[in-house]
Amino acid sequence: MSGSTIRTVTTGAASVADALADLPSGAEEEHRHGAGEALPPQSAQRGPATDCTADSAGGLTFDLRLAGTDAGAGGEDAGLLLRRRPDASGETEEVRLPLTPVQDAEPGTLRAALPSTVRLTEGRWNVFLVLAGREPRRLSPGVNDLRSLVDRVPHENRGWLGVRIPYATKHGNLSVRAWMRWPHAEAGALRMRDGALELDGRLYGGEVSATARLEAWPRRGPAEPVVADAAGAGGDRREFAAVLPFAALAGGRLWDLWLRPADGAEAVRVARILDDVPDKKRIFTYPAQPVARDAGQPAAAGPAATESAAVTAKPYYTLNNDLAVRIDRAE
What we know:
Blueprint: E1 6-10, H1 17-21, E2 29-32, E3 49-54, E4 60-65, E5 79-84, E6 92-98, E7 100-101, E8 109-114, E9 123-130, E10 137-138, E11 140-145, E12 161-168, E13 174-181, E14 184-193, E15 196-204, E16 213-218, E17 226-229, E18 239-245, E19 254-260, E20 268-271, E21 289-290, H2 303-309, E22 311-317, E23 323-329
Parallel strand pairs: 1-2, 3-11, 14-20
Antiparallel strand pairs: 1-6, 3-4, 4-8, 5-6, 5-9, 7-8, 9-10, 9-13, 12-13, 14-15, 15-18, 16-17, 16-19, 19-20, 19-23, 21-22, 22-23
């Protein structure tokens, strides 16, 4: 295996021109599997535990130790294989990283580096050990050092933001969650009071104008968004803040939150990805808030009043760590 990163794109579509358009240039080799070509098989035997260290720029290093029969196979062709789980179109990608010996470490210790300059398409990437003459094997998670990801500040001169967080799957395998965003609206603190969601955050890759607004779009149906002013109160043109009344969302079920930095600008999905938590939906939970009727609406009587009082709202992070609001009605 060469000393450079190798990227492979596999697609079920007729063309992968669009998928390859954003791949990095330079030292990386780009290959394509044919549309019907099978991916390499996976051995049922799991590989060694792998320690991951993240740097503040977005790079990752993977350290593992080969022992037993694996030790003799850790030659020049030893490598790490990152394989993205297929998307809705069936397309997937692979990135191969060379494994090299680590000096001043135990015999058989190897390291692979995923530089911050190598782009990983947004999604979940499974990690495999590749040894000469053997089938790829999933790796086990070891010790993660992700301290540099906490309160990370992206480099804005790059023109794109790559976030990679290693994690253990429910089956005990090592995977990497990757995001590719630019511009990016990072959610800050969430506060719920007076029947509204108070949100502040920071925009990377753009500026927040005086006409900036937060838009809550219903996930189902063609309805128009609910809009709230989002211009920051201070002098920092990258900060935004908004107050979103829950009563305005009572007519829908799920609402996705977007920041539109200025009139005519593209909306940017509001998310929280600049830390070391790969799946926030289960970690960041918020209490449900009762939704009062709009002040301009007459009070309902009888069963309708009971139904209105049973409506609750709560913000939450989706499986992609995007910010959303859910409206629930008691049966």
